[in-house]
């Protein structure tokens, strides 16, 4: 998921072999178009199809132990895995054929991995590695980046607008936006007063949402300009740890989950010059009253009152758990999906017109038996019988041409990052043609050699 994208590393693994013992889910991530969910546990990892409400299909299961990063590239067979047993090594697999394509070792522990159709990005605490996903060649290394112990970063899934965002400071909420296609810095956004906690792009790479460690305000910026477009207030009474932000496929909504029991959904709508709406609601009326009153108040108070509130909410059964959320269209209806650290997937119906409290449609166990089903208890909304429909692919999203290269450079930039080239696993060859991911039966971006079957060594960076 790309979902994404708060700190979803291993809660900071230490030196190899010194990481925390995994309990429950070690990690959970939705793929780039939210049609698949990948989860890692102490005993292995699983890939699920989430294109149906009532049925959760496990399409692959591996016994690789202590997995804390697992990322799938759209609906292809390419999956990236990192384990606590070797936290400095990234393994790239063809899961349908059960073989390793290649592996890379880095100078420090891997904290996060991001994928799109052009790039594979590996984030360490003080460096970022950008690979060409077509042949896994290292293209750029950004060294001496501000300390980023959670591995926070976001990569646009649109291969034409392949933007990368990561913290520009460890003390305040600055965001560096980097063009991963043209390999140049685009802009720096002064987003928050406190350090960043979560980042995510919309599907076309034209909007970037961010939240700070305080977790009270969520902001949305235009990309590549970096201009503030929206500002949403999650709450005022307490600071929270926002663990996940995600846009809906059409970028009309933005969801945010945290360590509290509430998931918020915000609506991105621009009011007309007169501020009038076709069908005014009580909420909009109260909002106008606040806006009118704010002109008589100090600037700081006025800013708080002008921030938009949540359009819809979900109240989870348990607070204090880490979770990841995404907005998707399943069986032609908008849904909110929440995967929690205790191993459950909740699917909620979202009312795109009126918002309000979302209704639980179904819940699934991600490992072990579903206790509710054993007891014969049906979840609310479990009678949904709409035929399964494939979710629209983000590949159909209109690609906006990328901007030209910007001459700004980053401090500490290195052409090769001290990379030492190793052998490519002989049984694979690199694709020469364009990457095509529309057919999940294909295996982009790396094709098989016709005659090679031997193993080989990975690369060390």
From TrEMBL:
Chief location category: membrane
Any Gene Ontology biological process: response to stress
Coiled coil region boundaries: none
Location in the cell: Preautophagosomal structure membrane
Family: Belongs to the WD repeat PROPPIN family.
Annotated signal peptide: none
Source organism superkingdom: Eukaryota
Annotated source species: Oncorhynchus tshawytscha (Chinook salmon)
GO cellular component: phagophore assembly site membrane
This protein's name: WD repeat domain phosphoinositide-interacting protein 1
